[in-house]
Amino acid sequence: MSLNLNSLEAVAEAMVAPGKGILAADESTGTIGNRLAQIDAESTFESRNAYRDLLFSAEGMENYISGVIMYDETLRQSSLAEGTPYPEYLAAKGVIPGIKVDAGAHDLSGSEGEKITSGLDGLDDRLTEYRQMGARFAKWRAVINITEDNPSGYCISTNAHALARYAALCQANDIVPIVEPEILMDGTHDIDDSFVVTEEVLHTVFFELYSQGVQYEQMVLKPNMVLTGYDASDRAGVNEVAEATLQCFFRTVPAAVPGIAFLSGGQSDEDATAHLNRMNQILGDNKPWNLSFSYGRALQQPALKAWGGKDENVSAAQEAFLKRAKLNSLATKGEYSEDME
Ligand code: 13P
């Protein structure tokens, strides 16, 4: 399948095309090690390659998945059956190769409990190399925590500044930036707290993107949904989440942005699908932006479990992955219903 990827606008549009979303398979070596430990599998260069391979080679995944975000190690690995490097292998399937380029969230000096994402040093050179290797988009994740005292304005503005610096460098290197400011769901905050913080963060991020000359048409936003904290006793339902999230985004995200691809952030697989579906139902054809997914856990969790690190379970794992991919694809069109589970 060949896609028109002749401009950054075309790549960004293709990433969030209706019926499609992004597979976030860019867990760092540490994080994928934790995921593999959950299924009692050892994390080695080979086991990580085998796990990513089962996802990428699942037959028909390209019908639901527009692009895959990889980690540096995976971008340099190859298809087990064909020996083709993954950027080339995915592109031949009509799936756009992407790369995580941030260097993780580290303690923000002077602000207890808050994080700043690092990775700007040398980024220009790394982007040049990744583009030569076939990456057409990149990802940078900022992490914001809601507590009694936080987030601070300092944390929000330094993270927004770094996100915009990264995005500008991506566009200068012919790479579409996924701009990911993630407000974590950890904590006891209610949905109103989540709304207020998400609104402030997105305003600040778009101010920085504007200030640094980032072209909105050539990017994809990857935000959290507006949700109740995991440890709160009273949780907002699907409709409330969908309405609050849309209201927050109408206020903050310019219509020039082609698409919003949500992160799942530890929601259950079903919740992540149901929330996306409800938002698309409410929006109908009246869409300033396409609303899609860029899920990690919510696409992979059932597949990882079904696989259990064993060769004989590869087909079952692929089936589990395809099921979630298909249901989320339907959710991008508002055509999912719970009985499909
Ligand atoms: P989750 O969907 O598991 O939150 O992961 C998405 C992601 O890429 C986080 O950076």
Distinctive features:
binds 1,3-dihydroxyacetonephosphate; single chain; TIM Barrel; 341 residues; 15% strand; eight-stranded parallel sheet; two-stranded antiparallel ribbon; alpha/beta
CATH fold name: TIM Barrel
DSSP helix count? 12
- Top CATH class: Alpha Beta
Strand order of the largest sheet: 8-7-6-3-2-1-10-9
Termini, distance in Å? 29 Å
CATH level-4 homologous superfamily: Aldolase class I
Radius of gyration: 19 Å
Task: Please provide the count of β strands.
Answer: 10
Hetero compounds: 1,3-dihydroxyacetonephosphate
| Overall structural domain count | 1
Query: What is the ordering of alpha helices and beta strands?
Result: HEHHEHHEEEHEHEHEHEHEHH
Q: Can you describe this structure?
A:
The chain has a single domain, classed as Alpha-Beta Barrel (TIM Barrel), CATH 3.20.20. The chain has 12 helices and 10 strands. Helix 8 packs parallel to helix 9. The chain is 45% helix and 15% strand. The protein binds 1,3-dihydroxyacetonephosphate. 1,3-dihydroxyacetonephosphate binds next to helix 11.
Fold blueprint:
Layout lengths: L7 H8 L5 E5 L3 H10 L6 H12 L8 E6 L1 H4 L10 H8 L2 E5 L4 E3 L7 E3 L5 H11 L3 E8 L8 H20 L3 E8 L7 H21 L8 E2 L16 H15 L6 E4 L6 H15 L6 E6 L1 H11 L6 H18 L10
Parallel strand pairs: 1-2, 1-10, 2-3, 3-6, 6-7, 7-8, 9-10
Antiparallel strand pairs: 4-5
Helix pairs in contact: 7-8, 8-9, 9-10, 10-11, 10-12, 11-12
The structure holds 1,3-dihydroxyacetonephosphate.
The site of 1,3-dihydroxyacetonephosphate has 10 residues, from α11.
